[in-house]
């Protein structure tokens, strides 16, 4: 999705990943995903 530049789909995927980690109380995984997503935010062109 990110490579195709589909902003809405990419946003939904990111939110879903974070929501799943939060609901599972997987705090380390949640933190790791936040770091990964923040590093990749510039790759998506709006």
UniProtKB/TrEMBL annotation:
PSMD12/CSN4-like N-terminal domain location: 2-46
Keywords: Proteasome
Name of this protein: 26S proteasome non-ATPase regulatory subunit 12 A-like
Organism: Trifolium medium
Pfam families xref list: PSMD12-CSN4_N
Lineage of origin: Eukaryota, Viridiplantae, Streptophyta, Embryophyta, Tracheophyta
One Gene Ontology term, aspect cellular component: proteasome complex
């Amino acid at each position: 999705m990110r490579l195709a530049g589909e902003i809405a789909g990419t946003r939904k995927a990111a939110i879903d990943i974070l929501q799943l980690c939060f609901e599972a109380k997987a705090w380390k995984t949640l933190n790791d995903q936040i770091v990964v997503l923040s590093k990749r935010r510039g790759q998506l062109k709006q």
